[in-house]
Write a structure and sequence with these properties.
The complex is a heterodimer of chains A (99) and B (294).
Chain A lengths: L11 E3 L3 E6 L2 E6 L4 E5 L1 H9 L6 H11 L4 H17 L3 E3 L5
Antiparallel strand pairs in A: 1-5, 2-3, 3-4
Chain B lengths: L5 E2 L3 E3 L2 E7 L2 H11 L10 H4 L5 E7 L7 E5 L2 E7 L1 H19 L4 E10 L2 E6 L6 H10 L3 E4 L2 E5 L9 E3 L5 E4 L21 E4 L14 E10 L6 E4 L2 H10 L4 H18 L1 E7 L2 H12 L4
Parallel strand pairs in B: 3-4, 8-14, 14-16
Antiparallel strand pairs in B: 1-3, 2-3, 4-5, 5-6, 7-8, 7-9, 7-10, 10-11, 12-13, 15-16
The chains are: A alpha+beta (99), B alpha+beta (294).
Chain lengths: 99, 294
C-alpha cells in the first residue's frame, strides 16, 4: 500500500486474525497475530464493518454519507483517516479485488 | 531425631496439585488447618491428578537453627533455617505462582472473587486497590470465598457461554494497612508476620465459607481512597470490558476466545466502580446491590 492509500477504488479488507466484541455502541477489536486490542468508537466501527474486501472506499463514503447526512462534507476525510490508522495497526489491508 | 512424617491430603490450587510433608505434629497441624480449604475433593483419584503425582513440599525441622524449618519442593532444597511463618508464607506464594502458571485452561484474572446465593462477584484490581480487603470484608459478612488474588473463569466449551467461576480458596492475604479494619480476622498463628501480612484460613471450622462454582453476575472495581465518599458508580460495558481485559493474566494465550469471554462477562454482568474509605460501608453497598441475605 502506497503513501496515497486508500484511494477511491481501494477495497480494504479486515485482517483475518482479527476478532471483534460488541460493546455499547463501540467495537473492541482483538488481533490475535499482533496481539493488539483497541476500541473503535461508533463511527470507526461503521468503517470497520464495511471493510469486507469488496466495498470500495468511494462506496463506503457514499453509504456513510447517506447514513449521516449532516456529516457528509467531512466523511470522506474521516473514512480515509480511519482506514490509514487501521492499516497502520495491521487490522486492515488491501483486499484482493483491487490487485 | 524425627522418625515420623506427617502428610496433608492432596491439595489443589486450580490445576496445580500438591501435598505438604512435615516432620513435626505442630507444624503439620498448623499447615493443615491453614490449607484445608484447598483439599482436593477427589483426593487420591486418578481423574483429578491425572497421570502425574502431586508436587511435594517439605517442611523439615532444621538441624542448624532451633525452632526453624528447612523447606524443599520436589526433593530440591529451597530454603533453610526459616522461621515457620516465613516458610509458610513462601509456600503459599509459590503455590499461587504455580497455580497461575499451570492453570492456563482457565481465563485468569488478577482479582478477588466471592459468591452470593449462587451468583459470582468479580473484584478486579491492582495491588493496593483494596480488592483483597474488600473481598475479606465480604467473606466476613457471609459471602462465599472464591479467591482474593486469582479468579479463574472456566470457559464454556462451545464458546457461547455461560462461563463459570471456579473457587481457588487460598488463605486470604491481609496486608498491614488493613489489620485495623479486619482485626477480628487476626490468625492464631501469624504467618508472614515479618512481611506485614496475615494469612487467614477459610473453610470449615473458620466461620468463613468457601463459595460454590457459579456464573458471574457482578463486577465491582474497587479503589481505596481515604478521602473518598464510599459510593458505587455504574460502568458501561466498554469500561467493564477494558478493566477486565487489563486484569486478565493470560488473555493473550486464549486469543480471540479470551476476548470474546470477557465480552460476555461485560455484557452479562452488572458492573460498578467502588471508591471507598470505609470498609463496612463498602460491604453494605455491595451486599445491598447483590441482594445478599446474609
Amino acid at each position: 500500500m502506497g503513501a496515497s492509500w486508500p484511494e477511491a477504488d481501494s477495497v480494504p479488507a479486515r485482517h483475518e486474525g482479527a476478532s471483534v466484541v460488541r460493546l455499547d455502541d463501540n467495537l473492541a477489536v482483538y488481533d490475535d497475530v499482533g496481539q493488539l486490542m483497541i476500541l473503535l468508537n461508533s463511527s470507526a466501527a461503521a468503517v470497520w464493518n464495511l471493510c469486507d474486501g469488496s466495498t470500495t472506499v468511494a462506496a463506503m463514503v457514499r453509504e456513510l454519507a447517506e447514513m449521516y447526512p449532516d456529516e457528509a462534507p467531512v466523511i470522506g476525510d474521516d473514512v480515509r483517516g480511519t482506514l490509514r490508522k487501521l492499516a497502520e495497526l495491521g487490522l486492515v489491508e488491501q483486499g484482493e479485488e483491487a490487485l | 531425631m524425627h522418625d515420623r512424617v506427617y502428610c496433608t491430603p492432596t491439595l489443589r490450587a486450580l490445576s496445580y496439585f500438591f501435598v505438604v510433608l512435615c516432620d513435626g505434629e505442630v507444624v503439620h497441624t498448623h499447615v493443615s488447618a491453614l490449607l484445608s480449604s484447598l483439599i482436593d475433593a477427589h483426593d487420591g483419584g486418578a481423574d483429578a491428578v491425572g497421570e502425574q503425582a502431586p508436587h511435594c513440599y517439605t517442611l523439615k525441622t532444621s538441624t542448624e537453627r532451633p525452632a526453624t524449618v528447612d523447606v524443599g519442593r520436589d526433593g530440591e532444597p529451597v530454603g533453610s533455617g526459616l522461621e515457620l511463618g516465613v516458610a509458610v508464607a513462601w509456600l503459599v506464594w509459590d503455590v499461587n505462582r504455580l497455580a497461575a502458571e499451570l492453570s492456563g485452561e482457565h481465563l485468569l484474572f488478577h482479582a478477588g472473587g466471592v459468591e452470593a446465593s449462587g451468583v459470582g462477584i468479580l473484584v478486579p484490581g491492582a495491588s493496593g486497590s483494596g480488592k483483597s480487603t474488600l473481598t475479606a470484608g465480604l467473606v466476613r459478612a457471609g459471602l462465599g470465598y472464591l479467591s482474593d488474588e486469582l479468579v479463574a473463569l472456566e470457559l464454556d466449551a462451545a464458546g457461547s457461554g455461560p462461563d463459570r467461576l471456579v473457587p481457588y480458596p487460598k488463605p486470604i492475604t491481609v496486608k498491614s494497612g488493613s489489620f485495623g479494619v479486619l482485626a477480628d480476622l487476626t490468625p492464631a498463628f501469624l504467618d508472614g508476620e515479618d512481611d506485614g501480612e496475615w494469612l487467614v484460613p477459610v473453610g470449615d471450622d473458620t466461620g468463613r465459607r468457601v463459595g460454590d462454582p457459579c456464573q458471574p453476575g457482578f463486577v465491582i472495581v474497587p479503589r481505596y481512597d481515604p478521602s473518598a465518599e464510599t459510593a458505587l458508580v455504574p460502568l458501561t460495558d466498554t469500561e467493564a470490558f477494558f478493566t477486565l481485559a487489563l486484569h486478565a493474566v493470560n488473555l493473550l494465550s486464549h486469543g480471540p476466545a479470551g476476548s470474546e469471554a470477557i465480552g460476555r462477562l461485560a455484557a452479562h454482568c452488572a458492573s460498578f466502580s467502588l471508591a471507598f474509605s470505609d470498609l463496612d460501608a463498602a460491604c453494605k453497598l455491595v451486599l445491598g446491590l447483590v441482594g445478599a441475605g446474609v
